[in-house]
Amino acid sequence: MSEDAEDLAERAGKLFSGRVDFLKSAPELRFLPDPTAAEIAFCGRSNVGKSSLLNALTGRKAIARASVTPGRTQELNFFEVGEPTLFRLVDMPGYGFAKAPPKIVAKWKALVRDYLRGRQVLKRTLVLVDARHGPKPVDIEMMDMLDDAAASYRVVLTKADKIKASELAEVLAKTQAEARKHSAAFPEVHVTSAEKKMGIDELRAAVLGDVEL
């Protein structure tokens, strides 16, 4: 690791161990907070482990509530990081197997799409993919939506501790190959486990690096 990378990782660790506070939920675009800070958005299929990853990144136990009910997050949830606020984390509605009426799901999709296309302070989106399965059609659909919105993103494998190392290597290669097909995707894929804290320091550094671009 270079000196610059070490410095970034150290600063990211200190930042995430400091102030991280819930700001507000936005069920519609008109409820978005004023665009006064950079934003990093998190999206993923329902039950991909998004809440657990947010909790691991921030070193909290329940800053984002994990739920056994897919599709529980129906709004954009904003969290402020730093004192004073340096940037915000945005927890987006899960997609895929949401147990909700089609009209509600359509409303979520419209909210997410409009946010991605129109939010000037959005620095990067993290697309979370379950390492046990690799990219599914709904994940690729989300990646296509980000490509269309010209919103650059990183693909993050979650729950990497749940499969064997050989299987993980195979899924990683498959995911990297998929990412290379997408114009707005980073070629590098992050491998994480919220439970084992695998890849968390590296992802913190990547988030801070994106904010500082």
List keywords for this structure.
single chain; 213 residues; alpha/beta; Rossmann fold; 6 helices; 38% helix; 22% strand; globular
Architecture blueprint of SSEs:
Elements: H1 3-17, E1 20-26, E2 38-44, H2 50-58, E3 76-81, E4 87-91, H3 102-118, E5 122-130, H4 137-148, E6 153-158, H5 165-179, E7 185-191, H6 200-211
Parallel strand pairs: 2-4, 2-5, 5-6, 6-7
Antiparallel strand pairs: 1-3, 3-4
Helix pairs in contact: 1-6
What does this structure look like?
With 213 residues, this protein is α/β, with parallel strands linked by helices. The chain has a single domain (3-211), classed as Rossmann fold (3-Layer(aba) Sandwich). It has 6 helices and 7 strands, in the order H-E-E-H-E-E-H-E-H-E-H-E-H. It has helices spanning 3-17, 50-58, 102-118, 137-148, 165-179, 200-211; strands at residues 20-26, 38-44, 76-81, 87-91, 122-130, 153-158, 185-191. A 7-stranded mixed sheet has the order 1-3-4-2-5-6-7, sandwiched between helices. Helix 1 (3-17) crosses helix 6 (200-211). The longest helix has 17 residues, at 102-118. The chain is globular, with a radius of gyration of 16 Å. The protein starts with a helix and ends with a helix. 39% of the residues are buried. Mean pLDDT is 90; it is low at 66-72.
